[in-house]
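Regression test attached.
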Amino acid sequence: MITITDLHKQFHNLQVLKGISLTVEKGKVVVIIGPSGSGKTTLLRCLNALEVPTSGSVQIGEVKLDFSQKVDRSSIPRLRKQTGMVFQSYNLFPHMTALENVMEGPVTVKKADKDSARAKAAKLLSKVGLGDKLDHYPAQLSGGQQQRVGIARALAMDPQVMLFDEPTSALDPELVGEVLKVMKELAQEGMTMVVVTHEMGFAREVADEVIFMDQGVIVERDTPAKLFAQPREERTRQFLQHLKA
Amino acid sequence: MQMFLSNFFDNPERLNRWIDIAQSSFLPLLKGALLYSLTLAIVSFFFGLILAVLTALARLSGIKPLVGLARFYVSLIRGTPLLVQLFIIFFGLPSVGIMIDPFPSAVIGFSLSVGAYSSEVVRAAILSIHKGQWEAAYSLGMTYWQALRRVVLPQAARVSVPPLSNSFISLVKDTSLAAAILVPEMFRKAQEIVASTYEPLLVYSEAALIYWMICFVLSFIQDRIENKLDRYV
């Protein structure tokens, strides 16, 4: 489903990604962990070209972009249509209700007709447990509710892959569970997911594979059971110990 | 002051004359205000805002020739008096064969002015919208123009209502400058009435009062718009 080949990303003089290669099969859940500055968020943002990589290629489904050559501008929205993204700070559109937020992609980008988009949006919001909040503006919702609207908004575009960028990091601890629960359900339905998170419990329980990144490279990748119990690399061990402390 | 008042009130004929002139001039003045002053302000503000958004986008585009052009335009318009600009358009351009009627000349002059001043307001408003809003729009597959139209501009509009209302109210009063290029707006009407009645204090005060009334109503409308736009924050 996702094939990343030798991806590099450089900001001015800073090498953030130093040759990342990775494949993710359809229906798998991959969790990326690592210290801040390790490049994990940048890697995720390269998958939908919110950051344009310096070189290397990204393929999602049928759409392949090779950033080593000049990228055709029209192909970037095509890549983005394959992916749905959920942000750490939700980034809901504050001037639209929950329902309008979820309808916005299908109506504006896919030119879906409004009635069917509305019906679909209402269904998705019920699915994330917000069937009674359709007409609320983001400012009237709690962080956990906003993030669930964010997930519904991304799902409305029928993405092949869902990307989560620290989706619970901005939430009060008591609201984290409701968002993780929705993500767990999505995983069980067979959605392909790439998740950057600090929630090790979620990684342990839901991930098919955990990737540990540090200083722009993938240090180690394994099943959660193996990676958490017996990391092969010293840096992974240090990071995990640091979390426990 | 006391002498003036006693003269004034000891002279019932003058008082009656004032009441007559005030009554007979009110409708022509109001007509000039609504038909020309306010119309001129609304039409110019409409075109001016389009210019302002385009100029702001050009400044933000990062494309060198566009940025340069936008800066040049803003600098030129802000650096020269509006009255001089109006004179160049109406009295100057005919000497190179470009004849424009008074009203369209005024619309051109005022639109260019609004475009330059308000472009800075619009630019600041667009910059005030959090980067995450663009990213959320892009992540749904929107193009630059879709993100701008559906997500960024509606939020920027809310931020710019107070400063733009200010500009509009200034513009309504600035339309009096159009009197100088023969637009029959309220101030020119007032000048004509003064020419025949020799009562400048009365007639100009009456005109001032009508400007004030209009701006009073506009401030009220501004409050209504702000309340309406604030409902989601």
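Expected vs. actual: identical. The mean pLDDT of chain B is 92.
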